[in-house]
Design a protein that fits this description.
By secondary structure, the protein is of the alpha/beta class. It has 13 helices and 21 strands. The protein has an 8-stranded parallel barrel with strand order 5-6-7-8-9-10-11-12, surrounded by 5 helices. A 6-stranded mixed β-sheet has the order 16-19-13-4-20-21. The chain has a 4-stranded mixed β-sheet with strand order 14-15-17-18, with no helix packed on it.
Amino acid sequence: MPQDVRPVPFSGPETLSREEIESIARLLPYLSYGVDGLELEGVPVRRLWNGSRPLLLHLPQRAVDNFTALHAAFSAHFDVRVHCAVKACYVPEVLRALRAAGAGIEVMSDLEWRLARSAGFTADRIVSDSIARPVDHLERLLRAPHVTISVDGERELESVEWHAKQFGARPTIVIRANLLPADEFFSTSSKLGTEPNEAYALLERAAASPHLDLAGIHAHQLIHCAGVARFAAQAGAAAELAAAFATLQGTRLRVINLGGGLESRFLMERAGTSCQDLAAAAREAMGPAPPGYRLLLEPGRFVFADAAVALTGIIAERRKSGQDWLITAVAGNLLRPVRDRSFPPLPVRWSGDRPWRRWHVGDPTSTPSRLWLDALLPEDVARDGLALLDVGAYTAVRASLWGSELPDMGIFHDGDVEITFGEAQQAALARALYGVDLDW
């Protein structure tokens, strides 16, 4: 190895061990291994998927289970409302299942407002977060009673206040504040949030306005959070600001929105943190709350990520620098890695007498992307393909017709698969975007 080249640790969680894979139901109850390989709620994957095209399969019930677990844990300590972040998943069947289970929704745009409304969410179950809103979208929010509007910055506060005055409305608002020390994502170079001193000044201005109903603060400064310490630190800092403002200004804030930024549920629990741990840590950090106080949560990845599985064939193997790679049929136009280990792989099937070894997993596009580095998988894994986990959040919502075909997409329910996006829909998309007729 050249002297100027140094191996670096892989970013992301630890690779699943063979024991974890073989007993995957301990981490994800809807998955298990039977005599015919990987099973989804007891149904062999080989009966659901013929392997000819990759398949992104959403599981609405798992999303509901994740929401329910988070809500139940925090309800033991708080008056809490959980608004699932629609930006993580636009699938109507999943959104409708969450609405039926009692979830609220968080939107960041007019498109997402319309998605939420079409899924049946009433205005009082919607939180709107944005750093800037087009006039027509803001006016739509002001016409809908009981929407909570998060305001991020002085200019957006001025805009909301001015339009509220013109409409004769008095919207419920919260002020977004960055209350934790700056990090690589939320820093002085980030467009998101306001510093504590600036946020305090915005709270004062909003409290004095006859056109605004100041409800509280919005503190969302987490990303892939899987431990209690940082979550508790954010909760404690938010409660401290709310208490200080009430003491000095005489206006008691009644809402603290802790936003999202949690890791997927299965990775969080694998790391040893439960919903109950988060809730108890927040309660301790925030101290006793006055009557009428409400906590808001806006989980995206936690609810949606492990509520889908991608099934993909292996289209090639290659060896580079002494490392063996598996090249998947599913591509980075759907699965956009944010770290070296983004989508944990499972074998669809393997022969019991074949050894296991280390593989890198990558997609077929001509980019330096990787789906998972240093995976422990059977030697013959390429024969039957892979199931990729944690693919339910921020994947289909950002998918594009670029570099490779998109997979089929579907819903798993009642032991069967309903394809919602297949070859015909992809062909129509290609014609609309590029004027190309795909030859199937």
